[in-house]
Here is the input.
Amino acid sequence: MKVAVYTIAKNEASFVERWYNSAKDADSIHILDTGSDDKTVTIARDLGIDVMQRKFDPWRFDVARNAALQMVPADVDYCISLDMDEVLLPGWREELERMHAQGVTRPRYKYTWSWVKPGVPGLQYGGDKIHSRHNYYWKHPVHEVITCNGTEIQGWCGLEIHHFPDHLKSRGSYFPLLELAVREDPDDDRNAHYLAREYYYKGLLDEAEAEFKRHLNLPSARWAAERAQSCRYLFKITGDIGWLYEAVNEDSTRREARVELAQALHDRGDWWACLQHAVAAMSITERPLDYLTEAFAWGSRPYDLAAIACHKLGLHSQAMEYGLHALRLDPYDDRLAANIRFYERAAA
Here is the structure.
């Protein structure tokens, strides 16, 4: 089995050596430099990395990544697209050997995108940027995805990739490229949802509302989790709690919509309904491995909401039980600790 690691890079001098050390068990390593004016190219070549230089005008991520993929020799079995702010964890090659023996063309793996603090993962989801050498290409000018134009066999393995984002790097070009992506492929549900979110983040609420509703009406928008998130954003924009009930209807298997609904009911003083949805959220114990999983739903929040609702309803022993569970999940939260003392006095 032959494995190649490839990437695009611009001004990544501070990351090259760490990136290389995580990938050096590959049979070949390739960087397409897209215009660095620091020492990225020099450092990479000194490490023995295959480097090409090319500028793209107009800039598109898919075009650049496809050019980088063309640097990979034709006899490679697996290609790992590894950005310069990512690292492969040790043992990755053995995992790919196992996938290769099973005939897998697209190995899936655990990807840690963010960190609560050093050593404590934040957002984790299933990565998909390892693929066979042939019949794959990159699509979309931004939020690009690796796409198969042949037969694909996916399989999960124990390989992990960790992401350590460079927060100093500008993402200013992403928004116009995302608008371009939607113009080029208006039926693509993923980019419709992403564009609606960008409108929301930029405060363009009318545009966001229209695009979220368009996303929900797309025939291709079949992923329940993403549909539910569009509904949740529509609640944020309109204040109509009906959108949160719709989010739960779209995907009742996840915590996020239920916890957000419980919070909204808490804010309205609807204590029985708040308790009902908080408890329903707690009953969901399998945390999905995708980018829509949000930490607030898997921490103390649903237990805290249930405790407050029980207290308001005069269910003091249940309030104490849920409150203690919330505190165990977040032991340094002063408000949760103070609530326990409050529940104790109420039950006395």
User: Anything to note?
Assistant: The two ends are 69 Å apart (CA to CA). The CA atoms of residues 171 and 294 lie 22 Å apart. The longest strand covers residues 154-163. Residues 224-238 form the longest helix (15 residues).
